[in-house]
């Protein structure tokens, strides 16, 4: 069969086809990748920023080879059979998605083309039912790293379509089908799924322990059983087309850059208060939403940005010019700290500790308080959270106590997860708090009339205190590391907090 890459039309339909008036016969070609080398001429495929109904790129030999590789992989797995479209039925369309994969130093590694089903044409109950599929929690990724530190292209034929035998990218049920498949395969090698993160698979043998952490079709394999890991890689290669990227250095990577602007010493102005009244609304919120979405992902490894991003993300639906100015300031701060990142030391202990703080009635719009806490495994920061409390607290003590309850919930989950990872917490975990009244409430039957409305939190914390699973330590405000998650700080204070959180200034990649 001759592959014709300049014809971007193909139709697919799943085992249960849907009723519709007419089948789809055309296809938009689009790209989800930003150019790593802006400004190059159109003849250079690396200059692609967005492809919309532009078939000239499909004639480039690099993209032709990428599409050929994708079609070859789909043929090998017998993804579909050619058949005649049933009368009165409509096919689920598809499109090509192009992406340039880069190395950690920014150079081009390969050109990747993915054939993706157009999900919006599927109907619930006909084309699909259950679609839920778990994705690794990023806290699990950081915890594991801390522990481990030790087709278009077919000739067009009338009414000829592809009847799917396997899930295709883009179908609503594809993630669920993939997770079920990989779960069954690794189970054959003795792996069991963690009860606390179902994407974490664990195997204990007499030679050691092995972990698999799955994030869609990317995975981390680690452990102290080197022979078992090698055998596992060979086994998985027999079942799937895999690419071994060697020692982990780039996982779910995100690159950020900002040119032609000054830098700032803090991500937010001191004591800044954003609201929905001041300044003019933005004419088009698209850019604002895209920037904030990228910043949210960036906080995965930049926890000191979390409070600033938490503020600006509250105005996604109707941003104003003051909100946009705040986003630009965050970007200017990032420009001056491009190579900051989390540092997981191989010499750190595996003992858990926490810091919890609150910004009482800090939101000028609804006067709700903001919870902030973080957990360190030895010196490695593995978990943190910022969220607005669901009710208005009548005192700073009440707000702080609700924060302690949230931190206790996270502590219990982390304790169970770390036990699964082979790092059980055998001693009581300290939670540092700078509100003595909240600590007194936790240990004693005091202020009873003033605390009835938080009785559930009260009993929850006291139960685990009595079980000696945790203990509360009073600290001064200057030693409260969670301050970085609840308020804007002056430059000197921010640098001190970033240093105490063991953030590292990493060497820039060599290009």
Automatic annotation (TrEMBL):
Residues 78-149, 150-255 form the Reverse transcriptase Ty1/copia-type domain. InterPro entries: DNA/RNA_pol_sf, RVT_2. It holds the Pfam family RVT_2. PANTHER family: GAG-POL-RELATED RETROTRANSPOSON (PTHR11439), OS10G0432200 PROTEIN (PTHR11439:SF461). This is Reverse transcriptase Ty1/copia-type domain-containing protein. It comes from Fagus sylvatica (Beechnut).
